[in-house]
Amino acid sequence: MKILITGNMGYVGPPVAKYLRTARPDATLRGFDNAYFAHCLTGASVFPERDLNEQFYGDVRTIPVEMMRGCDAVVQLAAISNDPMGNQFEAVTLDINQNTTISIAKAAAKAGVKNFVFASSCSVYGIAKGPPRKETDPLNPITAYAKSKIGAEWELQKIDTDMVVTSLRFATACGMSDRLRLDLVLNDFVACAISRGEITVLSDGSPWRPLIDVADMARAIDWAIDRPAQNGGRYLAVNAGSNDRNYQVRDLANAVAAANPGTKVSINTLAPVDSRSYQVDFGLFHSLAPNHQPLVDLDQSIQNLIAGLKRMNFKDADFRFSELMRLKVLQGHIDNDRLNLELKWKKSAAKH
After folding, report:
1. Looking at residues 313-323, what average pLDDT do you find?
2. Is pTM, for the whole model, over 0.90?
3. What are the distances in angstroms from CA 280 to CA 142, 222, 331?
4. Under DSSP, is residue 50 helix (H, G, I), strand (E, B) or coil?
5. How many whole angstroms separate alpha carbon 338 and alpha carbon 328?
6. In 3D, which of 276, 285, 273 has the Cα closest to residue 236?
7. CA–CA separation, 309 vs 339, rounded Å?
8. What are phi and psi of 219, to 5 degrees?
9. Which of 145, 102, 103 is nearest to 121 (CA)?
10. Contact status, residue 9 vs residue 32, Cβ threshold 8 Å
11. How far is CA 165 from CA 153, 227, 265, 275, in A?
12. In the CATH scheme, what is the code of domain 2-347?
């Protein structure tokens, strides 16, 4: 089996490659990435792409069709990956997350790829009061990132192909990675606890967030890589996570503090209620993928992050201005004349 993973050199890619290497030892794993974050290694003793057979470099907006020929599955991880980046680079977010995803999917279908896996997001539910959201419930994307994800889903569904397409609406990612991001709620709280001894929750702590560890994201992707059409349909959009991993933000802060004794939690009880709150129903994913359910619970995610950050000798109380924040990395490339505002490498960058 040959599997192409686009955008494999980010936060999620290393755990995915590691999992697939173990789960499918005979598979040929191929990565394609433009290396925005290649240098953002966090405590890795070896290059994480060691788990791949081949690593290629380039912009997914111009990925060669030849890259997909002979592949059984394509996993589309490449994206402008959160709300701050989406807000600053709105046009690029739409272009990469939606338009490029569709271009890759169409090229994959023409190349005879059997399965296409798209990393979507539960953020498409946006402001969602009431019971946990199911796949059939109304959507309310409120950010450029969320809009690009659901836009891609809608267009994927329209492609006339026999290729099996799975849009995994992932819960909010968390956990340790060889390219760790700290611009995620749980990861941020753990970093605050270690570097400052204090977690400050800017809201009243009541908003709900579903979480999934990156290791469990890899398990879900492994399932989707050869999902047969009769298990969910030729096209499937499914919430990927677990019902017991819906948390209120204040509970996450308190759980991190409990795991790192001496940490103070400060919650702004006078803050207006944060409308960005949603719970998600993962029942469909449980019924379709019983052998690929999340295994890493909240406490284990926290412990893995603590261990990983301590292994890095992490002490930076100002980490929100560091390269552990993806927006800061992109801005650094731009400020140093390596990227243009369309997030394309400048020719001069190749000379450095």
Report:
1. 95
2. yes
3. 17, 22, 33
4. helix
5. 14
6. 285
7. 29
8. -65, -40
9. 145
10. no
11. 10, 9, 43, 32
12. 3.40.50.720
